[in-house]
Design brief:
By secondary structure, this protein is α+β, with helices and mostly antiparallel strands. The protein has two domains: 26-209, NADH Oxidase; 213-245, no CATH class. It is built from nine helices and four strands, in the order H-H-H-E-H-H-E-H-E-H-E-H-H. A four-stranded antiparallel beta sheet has the order 1-2-4-3, sandwiched between helices. The chain is globular. The structure holds flavin mononucleotide. Flavin mononucleotide binds next to strand 3 and helix 8. Residues 31-32, 34, 108-109, 165-168, 202-204 line the site of flavin mononucleotide.
């Protein structure tokens, strides 16, 4: 390593307990929001902080393939909602008959209620045709963009801003409304606004659609499907290990 590069290494350690707990709290209390949005506009500087958090995400080959298209216009959001409604009808018909009325009862977007919508896109050409790290798996630019969305989602949580991800669209329809070029991929359509209440558990679980899986069933050791006493940690031991306990 060159001496001048050494200047960029800073001494580091884990966070002090309070800061660490705050990060875990953001992670565990983040929710997908569909209906709790307040109408107040989000201040520009707050939006900028959220976008800076997104832009700090990791990306394959440091490609930074994302763009953030901010949508506040009532007319544009109405057109996007129409596209959602059409796709949502198609979606309903894909479920078995006995689940359709439960599906219909779910609210799955906050497009018109949230004062700010953000369409997050991925430009596969951002860093030329050959990208460090994407050489053998072309999905990596999309994955990078998802990392940016998760950063934005967690930052929003700390600002008292709710965020809901809406994916029920025909991508071509959404692109036509927003003027997004063919080669650019839509990764997430996000609805944002202040909230003063959030579900304490995922709304889909509260409404009986689907429950959280047991983490112990999802962790393997050394070989696919292999579980050991080490992987399955008794609940009371885990409780003692969690921050704030
Ligand atoms: C890629 C992705 C797409 C999603 N699309 C939708 C959607 O179209 N509508 C919706 O209501 N929620 C959507 N969600 C939110 C999930 O339903 C939600 O994350 C999940 O139910 C867990 O709840 P929580 O985020 O509140 O913990 C999406 C989430 C992700 C990560």
């Amino acid at each position: 390593m060159h001496d001048d590069q050494k200047d960029f290494l800073v001494r580091t350690a884990g966070f002090v307990d309070e800061d660490r707990d705050a990060v875990y709290r953001a992670i565990h209390t983040r929710r997908d929001v569909r209906d709790q949005f307040l109408p107040d506009p989000l201040p520009d500087l707050l939006v900028r902080r959220l976008l800076e958090a997104a832009h700090a995400a990791p990306s394959v080959g440091f490609m930074q393939p994302w763009n953030f298209l901010l949508i506040r216009s009532v007319q544009t959001r109405a057109a996007v909602w129409d596209a959602f409604a059409r796709a949502n009808e198609e979606a309903e018909r894909m479920f078995p008959q006995e689940r359709r009325s439960a599906y219909r009862a779910l609210k799955l977007e906050g497009i018109r209620k949230a004062p700010l919508n953000i369409c997050v896109t991925c430009d596969p050409d951002r860093a030329g045709p050959v990208v460090l790290g994407r050489t053998h798996d072309g999905r990596m630019d999309a994955f990078s963009t998802v990392c940016a969305i998760q950063n934005l989602w967690l930052a929003a949580r700390t600002e008292g801003v709710g965020l809901g991800w809406v994916s029920i669209f025909q991508e071509a329809e959404l692109k036509a409304i927003l003027g997004i070029p063919d080669r650019v991929q839509i990764i997430g359509y996000l609805c944002l606004g202040y909230v003063d209440e959030l579900y304490s558990e995922p709304e889909l679980a509260v409404k009986g659609w689907r429950q959280r899986l047991a983490i112990d069933d999802l962790v393997f050791e050394e070989h696919w499907g292999k579980q050991t006493a080490k992987t399955v940690i008794p609940a009371e031991v885990v409780d003692r290990a969690l921050p704030g306990s």
